[in-house]
Amino acid sequence: MSNGSTAFFSKIKGNNAYVLADSLDDRKRLTIQVKVFTPVFKQAIGLALDKAELWTKLRDPKATFHILDLGCGEGLYLPILHQYLLERGAKAHLKMVGIDLDSTAVATAQEYMTALGLRHARFYLHDATMPLTKIEGLSLVDPSSHFDLIFASALLMHLRNPQATLHYIYEVLQPGGAFYTKDMSWSWDNSYPSPAFTRIIHLAQQATLKMLGVDFAANPKSFLQVAGFESIESFEDRYAVGGHTESGRRMLENLLLVQHAVRATLIQSGVISAREYDGLMEQEFREISPELEGRFSTVNTIARRPLH
Ligand SMILES: C[S@@+](CC[C@H](N)C(=O)[O-])C[C@H]1O[C@@H](n2cnc3c(N)ncnc32)[C@H](O)[C@@H]1O
Predict the structure, then answer these.
(1) How many domains, in total, are found in the chain?
(2) Nearest CA owner, ligand 1 atom 27
(3) How many whole angstroms separate alpha carbon 229 and alpha carbon 161?
(4) How far is the CA of 36 from the centre of ligand 1 (A)?
(5) Is the dihedral of CA 168, 171, 173, 179 positive or negative?
(6) CATH number for the domain that contains residue 73
(7) What is the extent of the structural domain holding 86?
(8) Atom of ligand 1 nearest to the CA of 18
(9) Tens digit of pLDDT for each residue in 182-203?
(10) Distance, CA 68 to ligand 1 centroid (Å)?
């Protein structure tokens, strides 16, 4: 990449390095991705709450349980979490907060929650690379040690300094509070047996890795250890891309939309010419077939803040 490309990336959104640039295309494809990831999301949250021994508090009707979704996008996970906790017997008052630095997504999230009747969910515009003790518009009695559960789905993998954000997360988590992060490594070989498809995905991954200078998901545990977390556990989840299954077809659609969302960024940053990119996209549409199936993985990491 040229120096010009670094400058382009730095202009996307302040110090946000989100390569998909918060586009409408990206928002659309996330609705598909959330559906595919939901079973593992519930599993990981359940595990995080087990490890932190938070079910007693959750089942206490007199308790207030504070939840934060960091990099919430349109807030798609909070209603899923709310429903899951109710199904598992939660009786506590669930206060949910989502933050993102995309104002359109934050507004959509708030509308969506209101439409669902989830009145105790609030969304705020905030940069997760800044301390979480001061979120404009959100007043917390004790900003440090506030949240019982914090999760970040596909956020830390997009940050240049995930360690700093982990420090801010740790700070606002209650002692004994639970944390869950889901990420994809930029160096993993996410494959699909179409040469054009694979080339585009690899170009996007390599450009992002170069721009970020860090691959959080390659070793999330070490970052969490440095931040002071304990009971850290990671597990991978693998998905089919394409093929005959419903989730495989959704994942393929998701990754094609990723390619579309990242197109402008890659071209403007000089990674590839428009002509070559569009040529590759045409080629991949000829190559894609239901007979072909690829693989895609993410890593789920859960932990808790020590009690003392
Ligand atoms: C891949 S999307 C994931 C959205 C949602 N968590 C999900 O899993 O569907 C990444 C989100 O992180 C947000 N984001 C990126 N950098 C951020 C930052 N520094 N502070 C807050 N949000 C950020 C983006 O705006 C985007 O909504």
Answers:
(1) 1
(2) 73
(3) 17
(4) 17
(5) positive
(6) 3.40.50.150
(7) 3-304
(8) 15
(9) 999 998 877 899 999 999 999 9
(10) 13
